Amino acid sequence: MYLKKMEIKGFKSFPDKTEILFPHGLISVVGPNGSGKSNILDAIRWVLGEQSMKSLRGDKLEDVIFSGTEKRKEMNYCEVSMLIDNQDKMIDIDYSEISIKRKAFKSGESQFFLNNKQCRLKDIKELLLDTGIGREGYSIISQGKIDEIVNGNSNQRRKILEEAAGITKFRYKKEESEKKLDVANENLERINDVYKEVE
Ligand code: ATP
Predict the structure, then answer these.
(1) Rounded distance from Cα 97 to ligand 1 centre (Å)
(2) Where does this one sit in the cell (predicted)?
(3) With CB atoms counted within 10 Å of each terminal CB, which end of the chain scores lower, N or C?
(4) CA-CA distance, 196 to 87, in Å (whole number)?
């Protein structure tokens, strides 16, 4: 499994449709200060469902949409898609290529797509659990992340180790089941109350 291609349009400093290919091997992105290198990483984080504007180096939701320049009008939407090669089936889905896309509008609406079919962020999150490429995965090591890992408390470090060890998926499923169990118990209590009333 590896990241094959990114397509960015209207995201931060990329108003035009921009295609970035990631062939196998080591790749470095070079460019002058402020040319948009970190914006590519922000785009990866954003398409994977990042909701925290602080992590995306902005304040408001629309800060990820191209805000215009002296010569160019601002845009009212942006979209980012990533293409993942999954020939080794490391991601548990019957496709050898997976495309994940996110679209956002100035109105605040945000849409997610999995292989061009609209889906929920939850679907993407569940698909990427334990692969290391999710929003909370360890595949994006940004500036300061190493410090965070070294200086983090045992809980934070444990989260990273659990993701690498493939335990996150089971913890997530356990928490989801517990939530469903709580709802079922509440319903049962309500039914018992009604039953007592009619008795
Ligand atoms: P450095 O080498 O200094 O870290 P960089 O190449 O990583 O720089 P980025 O931080 O990716 O650069 O890009 C910063 C540029 O992106 C700034 O010029 C900023 O004006 C532009 N930018 C950020 N958000 C938007 C936006 N919403 N619309 C237009 N331009 C934006």
Answers:
(1) 30
(2) Cytoplasm
(3) C
(4) 58
Q: Are residues 5 and 84 in contact, defined by beta-carbon separation less than 8 angstroms? A: no
Q: How far is the CA of 47 from the centre of ligand 1 (A)?
A: 17
CATH homologous superfamily, domain 1-120: P-loop containing nucleotide triphosphate hydrolases (3.40.50.300)
Q: What are phi and psi of 185, to 5 degrees?
A: -65, -40
Give residue-wise pLDDT tens across range 32-89: 999 999 999 999 999 998 888 888 888 888 899 999 999 999 999 999 999 999 999 8
CA distance 163 to 134: 10
Q: What pLDDT digit, counting tens, does each position of 133-179 carry? A: 776 666 777 777 788 778 888 888 887 788 777 787 788 889 999 99
Residue 137 in marked binding region: no
Q: Ligand 1 atom 23: the closest Cα is on which residue?
A: 12
Has 35 been labeled as part of a binding site?
yes
